[in-house]
Amino acid sequence: MSTLEAEWIQEAIQGNDDSFACLVELYQRPVYNLCYRMLGNAQEAEDAAQETFWRAYQALRRYDPQRPFVTWLLSIAAHYCIDQQRKRRVPLLDLDLLPEEDIPDAAPDPARVVSERDSQGQIHQLLKKLSPLDRAAIILRYWYDFSEEDIARTLSLTVSAVKSRLFRARRELAEKYQIEVEKPLVGRRANETPSTI
Amino acid sequence: MKPHQPYEAWIFEEDLSQEEQQRLTEHLSQCEACRSLREKWLGTQTELQERAMAVPRAGFTQRWKTSLVVRKQREQKKQAWRVFWIFSGVASGVMAGVFTYFLTQISLAGWLELSVEMIHQVLGVTSSIGGVLSAWTRLYPFPLTLFMVLLFLLSLLGLIALWLFALSRTFQEGKERA
Ligand SMILES: [Zn+2]
Description:
The complex is a heterodimer of chains A (about 200) and B (about 180). Chain A is mainly alpha-helical.
């Protein structure tokens, strides 16, 4: 952790919102990416990332400085996204929480560019088929280079549970990988947008 | 399926010992099913390791700052309601306690007597207020009455404004502290 970052955290704990905004600026990408990989949709990822920072903001006093700040944030994001996915079975719309800026802009934004390039691989599609917890383990392992111990701590699991989840998820991905490849993809890919991934 | 174990598990294992690696290679050379699974996994792994990072729409931090204000206000409101409910809960609890205490202390006859007395007193108060009011309207012309009523309403409004001001001050303080 850099001294500047530690300073921002300290100031944020003391109530400085600008310092916290600096932390948001610094960590928006890893947090957003995790939410995007977990939820598979740009708008939901935006909301989840904002919610993650709000939860971190509220729980800042409980942050343990021994742990990297980004790991702590990712842990909040992962738990939130897993909960969201579980709740999805019971659709419940909280109007109060809808974002004010919800108009998709026509300009190609980076998130869209990345996801379109990404969707040429099958991974994004395949990830969707895993259970939320398995998906989180895979994302943390491959996008964030987390060790099994790190994943266990982040997802509040035991290391052996992480091992078996990773094994199951890898197997599932590998098995479905071929199924996807064998399908003719030409027609489907043409109308793929981030919201359908 | 069983004869493919432990090789099937080893395909997905990241750190195999040299011996395990050797045994796996041997098995793969003989087993079509495991070979195909391994190929599929290698393809998946390659894509996983490409790991493009998705990036939020420009202005994420600005949107955070804007939403922070709204979220804090919402939290403050929630807090106020929480305090209100706790207060009402405690108040009604105390009242219920006092009520049951009296209920056990006073006999039914005593209760009847007490309620009759209370009704009598309430009636007395209302009739005396009515008396004062009718005397007032007899003594003073209508505009003055209207003026007094307005004065009363204005002072009520003033009190409400004062209360709202105090509320906004605590709100501000809470925001600064948060
Ligand atoms: Zn085999």
